[in-house]
Design goal:
Layout lengths: L1 H21 L10 H15 L3 H14 L4 H14 L2 H14 L4 H13 L3 H13 L7 H13 L3 H14 L4 H13 L3 H14 L3 H14 L2 H14 L14
């Protein structure tokens, strides 16, 4: 499940913060110019993995605008990325109390709950996020809900959410990757193969090539599996194999 966890965390960090900025108009409180600048910089630094500067700017945004929920949400997401789950939970809880109807914040808080293993409550918050008319990118709530259902072992539910996400973003490699994993888990090799091939066509990556090899292993095509593993080594010689069976010849 390592690849699932990494993707889930990355999507949470990169997409929810963008949605937070877009949904500010739905929040009753207003943000100061300093707070807006610092929050925007924190998001930009987060997207480029500059976590030290992201943390600094997010803290400054909270200091200038402690009553604005989105500043706490961004700080919470930075804490989540640096592995400080305790402070991430504190900040995201504050964000939700300040803006309980914000789809962006519900999406972020739902992802935190999923990370904590609170799958049913997380699913509820994702569905509330999807229903927020001011949430600029509900695709991310469908994606996170699908990933969370996958983590909970509810693969048919995961597929349903992920197909809803794909309908809104049909060339997103993260969604295609997730659907390929779900279909592999369901034992539906042909559909898993189709999704991973689409993912590879859009954005080749070591993880996607490893997943393609695992799918071919499951389908019994050892030659195709070996071809994908050789392709991964050729294209990404410094990448570590991921997933079950990644080190197979």
């Amino acid at each position: 499940m390592r690849s699932l966890d990494v993707l889930f965390a990355c999507v949470l960090a990169l997409t929810v913060t963008d949605a937070v900025a877009k949904s500010k108009a739905a929040a009753a409180p207003t943000i100061s110019r300093n707070g807006e600048v610092n929050m925007g910089l924190a998001q930009s630094y987060l997207e480029t993995d500059n976590l030290a500067d992201a943390l600094d700017r997010a803290r400054k945004a909270v200091a200038s605008d402690p009553g604005y929920g989105e500043t706490h949400a961004v700080l919470g997401l930075v804490y989540l990325r640096v592995g400080d789950r305790a402070n991430a939970a504190l900040e995201l809880d504050k964000a939700l109390k300040l803006a309980p109807a914000s789809g962006a914040i519900l999406n972020a808080h739902g992802a935190l709950l999923c990370d904590q293993g609170q799958f049913e409550q997380a699913d509820l918050e994702f569905r509330q996020a999807m229903a927020d008319p001011f949430f600029a990118d509900p695709t991310q709530a469908f994606f996170n809900a699908g990933r969370c259902a996958q983590r909970a072992g509810k693969l048919p539910m995961a597929e349903s959410y992920l197909r809803s996400a794909l309908a809104r973003a049909n060339d997103d490699p993260r969604i295609l990757f997730a659907l390929a994993e779900v279909k592999l888990g369901l034992g539906q090799w042909l559909e898993a193969r189709a999704f991973v091939q689409r993912c590879l066509a859009v954005a080749p990556s070591p993880g996607a090539l490893d997943l393609a090899a695992r799918i071919e292993d499951a389908a019994g095509d050892k030659a195709a599996a070996a071809k994908y593993r050789k392709q991964r080594v050729d294209m990404f010689p410094n990448a570590e194999p991921t997933g079950e069976g990644a080190h197979a010849p």
